[in-house]
Amino acid sequence: MDLARLIQIARGAEPADLLLTNARVLDLYACDIIPADVAIAGGRIAGIALPETDAYQARDVLDLHGSYLAPGLIDGHVHIESSLVNVPEFARAIVPRGTTTIIADPHEIANVLGMTGIRYILDAAKYNPLSVFVMASSCVPAGPLESSGAQLSAYDLESLLQDKWVLGLAEMMDFRGVLATDDDVLAKLRTAAARPIDGHAPGVRGVDLNAYVAAGIGSDHECTTREEAQEKLRRGMVIMIREATGARNLSELVPLVTPQTSRRFVFCTDDRTPVTLLDEGHIDAMIRQSIVLGLDPLLAFQLASLNAAEYFGLRDRGAITPGRRADLIAFDDLRAPRPRLVFRHGQLVAQDGKLLPYDRPLRLATLPVSLSVPRTSLQFRIPAQGNRMHVIQIIPNQIVTRAATDDATIAHAEAVADPGRDLLKLAVIERHTGSGRTGLGFVRGFGLQLGALA
Q1: Which terminus of the chain, N or C, has less C-beta within 10 A?
Q2: What are the DSSP calls for 349-406, one per residue?
């Protein structure tokens, strides 16, 4: 908006577009709650004043009757693809829960479609009531053993980083390449220059961690133990506390968040399926869970908004201060917050858990067909080779697994699944080129007794 007009409205010399009265504003800098009226103009917060001062007038006035007012929530690391829906539907699920900004790593769709997939995410994110920023996917494919549908080079990433919606380099999963000073990996790190570089370094400790951080990598969302997170915290990393569908680390890591350390933590969901999103929630659910675990509500909101905004350089959001975007949520219970009203850029976009209607393009962004699997080439037989077999052991609520062995169940000279012992057959099928290549093995920990999952 016009800067001169914003200044005049902030001084009370001109009427604001919207005035939210009788709010209890969460001050995330001083960790305090202040009674205030909040003036909004042109999608920005123009000013904050005590209600009794009558400092502001506005064309529209909304009395919050003492509701709490917090900045819109920010997910510091998420793969939209894991929700199994497109960007507008993802927004419909999370905006009513208070999330107004996400930092997405589209490496899952990039693994299939490369730059076309990332451009699709950027295009599909337009005209939605959700701000979608992207981190340039650093590891496509994720590793040298992966059969991907595309590859991204440092040159590709450099072109992506010219887009204003691309903030930096997404999770550097190839930590082995970093430690080995692989030329391609280092070239990708250099493209980020001074921009944020996210990490992905499960179990990396000691001098290897020193090297990983020295490469310029600033965050990690793969900590599964307090000890690992503490060491990375001491090396200067921002710790993204993840609470995904299959990897739940919040209860283990929240005790590390104190008034002294809170500004070095960020909430993220990473991968949440539709069931988890709809039944539990999004970042709002992490706030409620952390408060139940003993975290001060104001610190929880720091992790859910201000900290992510500052880490990613989004200095126009994350707090309720003059000049920032009016991305706001209003709720009634500080210890179990559930957004009643959600504002994005000064406009009411969700109310009482429902997304309000908004203007959408008649034609949504589309993608080319990306599946090429010749059914005649598929086979899932595993010839028995002795009486023992290797098994992937799932660790409940974690993304990491263990290597194990067990007695093979053999039928007709083949190793077969044995649901009674929770031993299931696992197949990974190359889906991009129609080669028919299939990797087969056994996994324990799903508990599946009937049918199959794909």
Answers
A1: C
A2: EEETTEEPP----SS-----------GGG-----B--SSEEEEEEEPTT-S-EEEEEE
Residues 59, 132 share a domain: no
Distances from the Cα of 89 to the Cα of 49, 76, 84, angstroms: 37, 19, 9
What SS3 state is found at 89? helix
What's the rounded Cα separation, in Å, for the pair 24 and 66?
A: 6
Give the helix ranges, DSSP H, for 194-293: 206-214, 226-234, 250-253, 274-279, 283-292
d(CA 313, CA 374): 46
Q: Is residue 328 part of a domain?
A: no
Whether the upstream peptide bond of residue 141 has omega within 30° of 0, thus cis, is yes
Alpha carbon distance 334, 60 (integer Å): 26
Among the three residues 66, 91, 117, which one is the final residue of a domain in this structure? 66
Could you tell me if 425 and 417 are in contact, meaning their C-beta atoms sit under 8 angstroms apart?
yes
What is the domain extent for residue 29? 3-66
Buried b (16+ CB within 10 A) or exposed e, 315-336: eebbbbeeebbbbbbbbeebee
Cβ–Cβ < 8 Å for 358, 129:
yes
DSSP state of 302: I
Which of 21, 51, 66 finishes a domain? 66
Q: How far apart are CA 396 and CA 247, in angstroms?
A: 8
* Angle (CA) 323 197 296, round 5°: 55
> What's the total number of domains in the chain?
3
